[in-house]
Amino acid sequence: DILTPTQHILHFKKEKRRGKVVTLVGRFSLHVDDVKKLLKELKQSLGCGGSYKEPYMEFQGELQEKLKEALKKKDFRFKQ
Fold first, then answer.
1. What is the pLDDT of residues 44-63, one digit of tens each?
2. 44 and 80 in contact (C-beta within 8 Å)?
3. pTM (2 decimals)?
């Protein structure tokens, strides 16, 4: 099911992998090409590494607040 950004309700998870923090954000319901384009834009604006493993985006580091601001500018909503 493909949804518009305003129909998404995203949530964050934080995990430790090999002693480092990884921030997960998702569930994205977009075309894979659109998700990868969004991921590239976010990685460039935040200056971090990351990847997309369906249905979550993974970012290196503890970036919840910065990600929330960047995604709000793109009209995504979040679970409280």
1. 999 999 999 988 999 999 99
2. no
3. 0.86
The Cα 16–Cα 20 span in angstroms is 5
Q: Return the structure tokens found at 71.
A: 């995604």
Kindly report the CA angle at 53 between 37 and 61, in degrees rounded to 5? 85
Cis omega (within 30 of 0) for bond into 55? yes
The half-sphere exposure of 33 on its side-chain side, counting CA atoms within 13 A, is 0
Q: Which residues neighbour 60 within 8 Å (Cβ) at sequence distance 6 or greater?
A: 20, 22, 48, 49, 50
The gap from C-alpha 51 to its chain's centroid, in whole angstroms, comes to 9
